[in-house]
Write a structure and sequence with these properties.
Aminopeptidase, two-stranded parallel ribbon, 13-stranded mixed sheet, alpha+beta, globular, 13 helices
Length: 337
């Protein structure tokens, strides 16, 4: 009998409610939205020996099917239904059962697995500040690197205004800044529909927050924070870099510090997750400056990584006008997954 038993979405919802750890991305509301927006994407659900439940998204790239847990997020993986699941058995059973599959496992999920101490593949890591709910502003601020503290203080003197994104017009400005960020990074961007979906949730729930920064009434930066399982996850960042450079501003430091202070004062999270980062990238140095610790993102996969990041087309992408990036991205986003 297969170790992974396919189950219905309703059965998955029932097991999801019993999971010892879950994320925003494991919720079926998110899956249904993605299936509606991207017809080439379908979700499947499996139970594993009554120990875990695994959501997978099936899609076809270059005529070849692949399975991902989970798309449009930095890490997914199985949801634990019990403590101390044997990782080696899970990995072997998974690769024996499925072909062309990739899991990037959330560090919070890893706490429920035990393994023999061997090397688990990890190409990316998550930078987190743990014990966040026991700290105050002074202790957090002192834990930052001196240059990070200096940039925050400088930003606080730049007449920047931090706020919560409240209107459709601010959301559009936020997305425009995000497109500029992705153009600078030469990366295919998420479609506007994803931002709108998250924004609608933020209006009616505390699970999503859009924090923004304005300078002279112009929105120049922002972050999307997701809340789940005691974690505040910095999911998306947007910055109008041309405006920022021209005016010599530090909005990224300003917005992150203001988001942290809001979470500290509300005691809404035990962990502040600065997000996934490629190991040995320049972004690691930035995140270390916040006093965050590195946690590996375990990867289980039987297919090679996409060569899109090394493609010469990335240089061309960075030269495209922003309206073209917005138009083309929905058609290319599957190749980023």
């Amino acid at each position: 009998m297969p170790k992974f038993q396919k189950i219905t979405r309703e059965e998955y919802r029932n097991l999801f409610s019993k999971a010892l750890f879950s994320t925003f991305f494991h919720n079926t509301e998110w899956h249904e939205f993605l299936e509606k927006e991207f017809k080439w994407l379908k979700f499947e659900y499996y139970s594993y020996k009554d120990e875990a439940v695994l959501p997978l998204a099936r899609l076809k790239v270059f005529g070849r099917e692949k399975l991902i847990s989970l798309p449009f997020c930095e890490y997914g993986g199985p949801l634990p239904l019990k403590k101390e699941i044997n990782f080696e058995e899970f990995e072997n059973d998974l690769l024996n059962e499925f072909n062309n599959i990739e899991l990037k496992i959330n560090p919070g999920i890893q706490d429920f697995f035990k393994h023999n101490g061997g090397i688990v593949e990890s190409l990316n890591c998550s930078y987190q500040i743990r014990g966040f709910n026991y700290l105050n502003e002074e202790k957090i601020f002192r834990s930052f690197r001196p240059t990070t503290r200096q940039r925050i203080r400088k930003a606080e003197k730049e007449n920047l205004v931090a706020a919560v994104c409240k209107t459709e017009e601010e959301l559009k400005q936020f997305y425009n800044a995000y497109v500029k960020t992705m153009k600078k990074n030469k990366t295919v961007c998420f479609p506007f529909q994803i931002f709108k979906f998250l924004f609608e949730i933020s209006r009616n729930s505390r699970d999503v927050n859009f924090f923004i920064v304005k300078h002279k009434s112009r929105l120049i930066s922002g972050v999307v924070i997701l809340f789940y399982s005691g974690i505040a996850h910095n999911f998306l960042t947007a910055t109008d870099y041309r405006y920022v450079r021209r005016n010599k501003l530090n909005p990224v430091y300003f917005i992150l510090w203001n988001a942290m202070k809001d979470i500290l004062n509300s005691k809404r999270a035990e962990v502040f997750d600065l997000g996934g980062t490629k190991i040995n990238s320049s972004l690691e140095e930035f995140k270390r400056g916040w006093g965050a610790e590195s946690y590996p993102i375990w990867r289980i996969s039987d297919f090679k990584l996409s060569k899109l990041k090394k493609s010469r087309l990335r240089k061309f992408w960075g030269l495209l006008p922003e309206f073209m990036i917005k138009t083309i991205s929905p058609y290319l986003i599957k190749y980023r997954l």
